[in-house]
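Final report, Chapter 2: Outcomes

The project's central promise was a pipeline that accepts a single protein chain and returns its three-dimensional structure in a standardized token representation, suitable for archiving and comparison. That pipeline is now operational. To close this chapter, we reproduce one record exactly as it appears in the project archive, with the input sequence first and the structure output second.
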Amino acid sequence: MQIITQKMIIFLMLPFTLLSCGGGGGGSNGSNTGSTEQKQFVLDVMRDYYLYYDQLPSTVDINAYDSAEAMLAALTIPSDRFSYIADQAAQSNFFEEGTYQGLGFFQQAVTNTVIYVFDDSAAGRSDIQRGDIIVSSSRVGNTITLDINRQGARIVRVLDVGLVRMNTVLTTDIQNHNGVDIGYLALSSFIEPTKNELATTFTTFAQADIDELVLDLRYNGGGRVTTAQELASYIVGINGIDSDVARLEWNDKHTRQNQAFDFLSLTNSLNLNRLYVLTLPGTCSASELVINAMAGINVDVITIGDTTCGKPVGSVGFNFADKTLNPITFDVVNELGNGEYFDGIDPICLATDDTSHPFADPMETMYAAALYHISNSTCETPATRSALSANRQTTLYNPDPMANLR
């Protein structure tokens, strides 16, 4: 009998391949996952640990599939958009070290507009900016030539694919708006290096004794539960004492692995009882956990933007060969036992993504909507279902176009 070992690092994130692969990176690398042993491993894990194991077919012919990835796609239930297989080394580098091979920018799916850039990357060093529109690109080997529209002017940038070091804190700022000191934090993901970035950020916020916090998670697809736990703890401070940020509930074969993540006592926490969160469909998983955690302890959460992705579930990684299988293995609920937000978390105030302004600019549409609510205690544009449906079509985004971490 094959022994199944799991890598007990708990993830709440959009599929790693969706976050880290895009047009131009195509294909997979690493070892072939078509061997009988590897496919059997995946099947064994799914029958044992998969949250929905009881909905799997009673018999599976592993020889009917060319690869473990193809078999996994056939096994997952229709509502499961999140189970996946990734390159083991690349996934570890991404979550543990905050690095990957690519160009270092993300862009909107429809308009090809750059939404953010990592500082220590080819894109960052070449002055690619939020709001740039990628008109076209060409590739020779690992060298990429980009034709860019920047506010009506055409520029060309030549970049080499290389190591990207992610600064997940994209922007921080403190502004006084109508006599209120407001902290702003834009965060791209919850990985291990994020913890040090958060410590620095909240030291600054605490020293400034801010009155309100606008947490910009519009592009944050999630990550580690423990990193989300720290963020939530920094925000609420003493308001979270003796309460849980989240509880993870496994299938009935593994209830002994059910786990609670409590609010931590951290230096420089803010003790806030209200939080503004900027959200889009890219706001997913661990980001939604933070929002749900606030609701679980009656912190007033004002969500602004668009409906989140809807991922109240998570996974642990199971290593085989040079790959990692990441099946959905648990539900996520808050202190009150509430979860199940598969349709996403709707905003209270509607606002569209505005790449024509930098993060933390008071003229940027989503941040401006938060400032309006802080000053007026009401939405400038309340969210309605029809407006949300129309807005959602323009807010999908693509990852770094040259990364390939599958």
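Archive annotation: Residues 194-208 form the longest helix (15 residues).
This record, like all others produced under the grant, will remain available to the consortium after the project formally closes.
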